Amino acid sequence: MGVGFGKYGFLAREYLELWDEKNEYDKWKYRIDGIEVFKEYLTPMHDFIYDHIYIGNALKILPDIKHEYDLILLIDVLEHFDYKDGVDILDACVKTGRNILISTPKDIGYQGTNCVKCRGTHFENKYETHRFQWEARHFKKYNPVIIADQSNLICFIGEQAPKIRKKIKKREKSELKWRIRNRFPILKYPYRIIKALLK
To answer: Buried (b) or exposed (e) across 67-96, using 16+ Cβ within 10 A?
Structure first.
């Protein structure tokens, strides 16, 4: 949603279709659609990458989409909606997609006329205005997996959430062990002794 320059459609197409070199270059097997409210962003590249791009407000488009998607990307999108509309978007996404990946800035910042983040002032796109600062608590009803990141709030919602949550916990546990081993190398000796005694 909010295809913009088409970066995520491009990456999805590359990794789903071409990465293993089993598919022909333009004989796509997967459906990749997009929604874009600002049609001036669209180029001929979008026609090649996407199966279909719906043009207009996602709030009006999502209820009429007949396809069910494995994954919906809301990357740098939600901050452009106020809270109520954002929740309506999320609810519609839950009905349309089995999984949803959300990334929104932890600090939407100030948008002045010279703000680089605010592309609306540069591309004359009123939809680029940041309207709401999303926080983890706003996604609580969707039972999200929150993925650690310094500058963005990243949430995963959907069928695969338990699997993602398990993988993240496993990775965090592995990273913690690595940190402890590297910061306190002397601890490996008592650990080995205790482990040997428990056998």
So the answer is: eebeebbbbbbbbbbeeebbbbbbebbbeb
